[in-house]
Automatic annotation (TrEMBL), chains A, B:
Pfam families: BcrAD_BadFG (PF01869). It comes from Niveispirillum cyanobacteriorum. PANTHER family: N-ACETYL-D-GLUCOSAMINE KINASE (PTHR43190). It comes from the Bacteria. Signal peptide: none annotated. InterPro entries: ATPase_BadF, ATPase_NBD, Euk-type_GlcNAc_Kinase. This is ATPase.
């Protein structure tokens, strides 16, 4: 009898990554596929997942024939409830030995704490927190750029555009930062309006380095904008502690950068991630296998 | 020789209104047409304008033959500079005796102060301020929902959604208001995310009455959200005074409602509008006629 294998999937909104591991947790192969947010459609998500799976199998020198004895643990963006998890399992295009799925934040948290209880706070273009206590996961924040994702590069960039217009109109401080933002977006309000029209969170996020640079140079407004995003992250960290997280990992492109603007006690509750989101997926797969 | 006539146009993003007046300023007829924001295209804008003009002419018992001796003053949404004004004049589908155009905020300000210097502050779904001093106009704020329009129903509604999610996540006060907002948008974060996806400023604005109701009942969070928007409007009023506005009209569906949340001195600088935006258009038309 073949010993079972385990696939860990980290399926996000831009790409999907797969890791194939054996029962001892050793990596046999990895692969990458397209976006696997289930809001794009289950067929789109599964196509991306299988693209990443096939690449991982190829790297391991294996074919799809092993999948019937392989457990798969899927962390997928866009999953919101148990009904979504059932739809994911029910629409698999091949037969696995077992399937478990959860949000990509859940598997990221699982991987970061190697299956133990803990919390993660991800801050990049967007932001979101996740906690697992007694095995039960809960998402905090991360409900999108428009009304959530506080403590993120996109929020910082949007605040900078707002401040630039207020400075231009004489209703707020007009500093080196606001002048730099106005210049970057075309120099006058109509140009800014034209830039804002099609702008996505990623576009606002491109302004975050400009704000950070000016904050480091002592621009008083830039300092305020950076500190506000750092404060938002501290708010998330307080909440994770309140909910019982024994340790918290601060992740993403912006999170660790903002640590310089957080109070000293924060460093004391942070730990380095023990593994990535694919490792969390592998742990979920092992749970599907009865581990 | 026929005595000249004057057409005042108020062309906004949802509809266009026209008023035909004689040299004494008496209204001869009015009409309505479609959206005349020039960002929709000059042909679309002019179609809407001519629809409103034809209706005004019909009400006056006149035909298009009078237009060659009629001056037209256009207040159009989407005009940002002199190049836009030239493009509007250059694309008129019929011959007028003369054409002048400016933003719809400019003609609203002109009408509100009957051609005298002054400022206006419009707060409804969006917000924008306009000042005319020594005949020269300047727009303040109103650069759009995403990064401007502070002190508006849409901003208030968006803040309420943000507060509702923070309350739900345990990162902010969870009051009668936040519970009412969560309930109105489906009860849980995934439903809120689904609501936010296609939401336009007008959708956020529909939540403003809920916030105002709760503020009047003493909900501490609702009070804060309402006061913040009122403070934003006061910031605009201070700026209009600083720029030399001898009097200010507070207009729109929300502006006068928020007066209750502003400091008492504000009432002392406000005046009732003397005329509407079409009246401002007629004044612009008279200027085109050398008045």
């Amino acid at each position: 009898m073949t010993s079972p294998l385990f696939l860990g999937i980290d399926g996000g909104g831009t790409r999907c990554r797969a890791r194939l591991a054996d029962a001892g947790g050793r990596t046999l192969g990895e692969g990458v596929g397209g976006a696997a947010n289930i809001r794009l459609g289950l067929d789109v998500a599964w196509n991306a997942i299988m693209e990443a799976v096939d690449a991982a199998l190829a790297q391991a020198g294996l074919g799809r024939e092993v999948l019937s004895t392989t457990y798969i643990g899927l962390g997928l963006a866009g999953i919101t409830n148990e009904a979504d998890q059932k739809r994911v399992a029910g629409s698999a295009p091949v037969t696995f030995a077992g399937i478990l799925s959860d949000t990509d934040a859940y598997t990221a948290c699982l991987g970061a704490h190697a299956g133990a209880d803990g919390g993660i706070l991800i801050s990049g273009t967007g932001s979101a927190a996740q906690i697992i206590v007694n095995g039960v996961g809960r998402g905090i924040g991360g409900w999108g750029f428009e009304v959530s994702d506080l403590g993120s590069g996109a929020s910082m960039g949007r605040d900078a555009v707002r401040a630039a217009l207020l400075g231009h109109d004489g209703m707020g401080p007009h500093t080196d930062l606001t002048r730099a933002v106005m210049a970057a977006l075309g120099g006058d309000p109509p140009s800014v309006v034209a830039w804002v029209g099609p702008a996505r969170p990623g576009d606002y996020g491109t302004l975050a380095p400009l704000v950070l640079d000016h904050a480091r140079k002592g621009d008083v407004l830039a300092e305020r904008l950076v500190r506000e995003q750092a404060d938002h992250l501290v708010m998330h960290i307080r909440r994770l502690l309140e909910l019982g997280a024994p340790a918290i990992c601060l992740m993403g492109g912006l999170g660790p950068v903002l640590l310089d603007w957080m109070p000293p006690w924060v460093r004391g509750v942070l730990t380095a991630p023990k593994g990535d989101a694919m490792a969390g997926g592998v742990l979920l797969a092992m749970r599907a296998g009865g581990a």
